[in-house]
Task: inverse folding
DNA sequence: CAAATATTCAATTGATTTATTGAATTATAG
DNA sequence: CTATAATTCAATAAATCAATTGAATATTTG
């Protein structure tokens, strides 16, 4: 048996997976797909890529079987091939947080409130989920809320909060969540809510993390 | 706040981690380092790389802070920066196993016995660890056994098994383990032991997996 | 069946990564 | 202080990856 050939061939396959995810744009695309199925156009818009470029990156992910395509009418819809793919992104982030000082620096630069305002962990939210005075607020676009949200959560997309503040009773505590720890929607929502006298905090992680942990979700 | 700049910068950092691991040789180097600290020369020899090339790949891993260097005398010894780094390799492998048919094909080609001989899972071994008639056999090089091994395991490196068969009582069941699921030492040991009338199986995973699961280990 | 739309494919260019080689650096031993 | 050994650095060529552009394909609509 040729040890060397075996090791080389098998590690080449493992490297295929790692190479597919090892790109700024593809990481963002996977993050978006973790919210649910999306068309190429939607993904291109969200990730600020040209359609052709987005398509190319999606092909790269597809070749590594990290995502699956489904054609319906004119559109091709992509989704994650396996929840483990999102877990991979999570783990990469976790290592980056621990090992790369730059990550903390970037967060401190862009999300100045993060350091001051302690986010609510998933576990904390679980234990408080049935408190009567607590509102769990999904601030992602409505489509994403529709595709799946934390059981019992209300939807007010970040773009609409300003106009819809009256829907939120001022005496209740609000926990806002969005796409994940590196999504800024919840930070912005909390900032706005706090400035209007609400008691508000963000959930540290996002919907995909909640779902991955097999916690109660709803679709509608 | 500039969303786009934040997303780009933060994902660039995450991509750094993924890019560092996304190479055939670097995956092998990390796998070796999961056994314990190694010098550049040892790593180069094991991974069949020139010293300069190995050093270069090690720099790439070091720049992403996935490994740490320690200089002692003439030699530089590298080790994993965090157990999570090995977890990353594990997860990549898990995804590759599930998603890439090639992985199964390669294993079937090189490790023909794997399909027939059911390996012992870590959990199975835990529950049987205190059976009197069971020998847990570490077939890695002695150095690696010395740096850490499954509590109670005996060491006979794969190269020496043939000559040292007499040390193994023929009536006891043997579970052999090595560096990991994609290390062939244990497969070869089991094959040899079976051909000499022993009852032998390999542990599915390797020592780093055992250690990562915080199971009892010994050093000597 | 032609027009319109979403996506992919193909070709090009520039940027990044990899392997190789030999020189430079650092530490030890005599 | 010199010779030796281990590792890193620097320079190069080859290979691979990324972004852009425009053409090609597939599906729907009229």
Result:
């Amino acid at each position: 048996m040729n040890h060397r050939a075996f090791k080389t061939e098998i590690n080449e396959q493992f490297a295929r997976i790692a190479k597919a995810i090892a790109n700024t744009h593809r990481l963002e695309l996977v993050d978006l797909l973790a919210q649910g199925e999306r068309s190429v156009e939607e993904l291109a818009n969200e990730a600020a890529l040209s359609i052709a470029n987005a398509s190319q990156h999606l092909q790269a992910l597809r070749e590594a079987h990290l995502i699956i395509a489904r054609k319906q009418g004119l559109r091709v819809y992509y989704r994650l091939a396996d929840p483990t793919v999102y877990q991979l992104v999570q783990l990469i982030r976790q290592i980056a947080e621990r090992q790369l000082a730059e990550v903390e620096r970037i967060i401190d630069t862009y999300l100045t409130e993060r350091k001051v305002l302690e986010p609510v962990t998933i576990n904390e939210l679980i234990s408080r989920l049935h408190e009567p005075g607590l509102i769990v607020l999904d601030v992602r676009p409505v489509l994403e809320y529709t595709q799946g949200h934390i059981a019992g959560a209300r939807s007010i997309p970040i773009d609409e909060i300003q106009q819809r503040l009256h829907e939120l009773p001022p005496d209740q505590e609000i926990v806002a969540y969005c796409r994940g720890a590196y999504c800024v929607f919840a930070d912005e929502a909390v900032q706005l809510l706090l400035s209007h006298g609400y008691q508000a905090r963000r959930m540290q992680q996002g919907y995909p993390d909640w779902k991955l942990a097999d916690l109660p979700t709803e679709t509608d």
Remarks:
- Chain B has a mean pLDDT of 94.
- Residues 109-218 of chain B form a domain with the Oxidized Rhodanese; domain 1 fold (CATH 3.40.250.10).
- The two ends of chain B are 55 Å apart (CA to CA).
- Chain B touches chain A through 55 residues (CB under 8 Å).
